[in-house]
């Protein structure tokens, strides 16, 4: 179900999880969405701060010692479509002025290879086969250090984004804001 409030169309999802990677504690954003730190979902990596106006990009977690590092999100409904959004903002956190290239994986599947200076998101919609979701970043070479800024998980109600097969998944190719001046 959804509600139209002012300028925003708000959908109610059974599972809503916003993880601010590298942050601690909880906070609410300007839309009233609750964000939590990532300590309960990963136990490796180091944190860094980035100078930006967008709260979800002000902290990140990077992984200099592991070839592959995974966030594990427990308690998801198997067979129900979920949207997983991984967000990244390099912000020159390491002082190298060269964003790393690394792989992004969800539930063991290759998602994409990332390398970008500006903020960017990767989204997938799929039905998990287990009662948890894993999102991993993996090194592509020893001098490329993976990082992540935010993770968002949404469970969709039955019937939303249905496909013919249970193995199907949908990847975001491009999202365009028509008429918006401040869209990231």
TrEMBL record:
Is Signal among this UniProt entry's keywords? yes
User: What does the UniProt keyword field contain?
Assistant: Signal
Query: Which top-level group of life is the source organism from?
Result: Eukaryota
From the UniProt record, list the coiled-coil ranges.
none
Membrane topology of this protein: Single-pass membrane protein
**Which Pfam families does the annotation name?**
Malectin_like
- InterPro entries xrefs: Malectin-like_Carb-bd_dom (IPR024788)
Q: Which GO terms describe its cellular component?
A: membrane
What's the protein called, per UniProt? Malectin-like domain-containing protein
State if Endoplasmic reticulum is listed as a keyword.
no
Q: Where in this chain does the record put each Malectin-like domain?
A: 19-181
The subcellular localization recorded is:
Membrane
- Major location, coarse class? membrane
Q: Signal sequence span per UniProt?
A: 1-18
């Amino acid at each position: 179900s959804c509600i139209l409030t002012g300028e925003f169309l708000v959908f109610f999802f059974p599972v809503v999880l916003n993880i601010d990677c590298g942050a601690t504690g909880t906070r609410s954003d300007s839309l009233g969405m609750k964000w939590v730190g990532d300590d309960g979902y990963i136990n490796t990596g180091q944190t860094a701060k980035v100078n930006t106006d967008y709260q979800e990009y002000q902290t990140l977690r990077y992984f200099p010692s592991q070839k592959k590092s995974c966030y594990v999100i427990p308690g998801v409904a198997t067979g129900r479509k979920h949207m997983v959004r991984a967000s990244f903002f390099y912000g020159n956190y390491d002082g190298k002025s060269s964003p790393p290239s690394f792989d992004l994986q969800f539930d063991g599947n290759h998602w994409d290879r990332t390398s970008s200076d500006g903020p960017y998101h990767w989204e997938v919609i799929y039905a998990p086969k287990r009662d948890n979701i894993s999102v991993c970043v993996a090194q592509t070479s020893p001098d490329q250090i993976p990082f992540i800024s935010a993770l968002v998980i949404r469970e969709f109600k039955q019937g939303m984004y249905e496909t013919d097969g249970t193995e199907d998944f949908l990847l975001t190719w491009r999202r365009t804001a028509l008429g918006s001046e401040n869209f990231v």
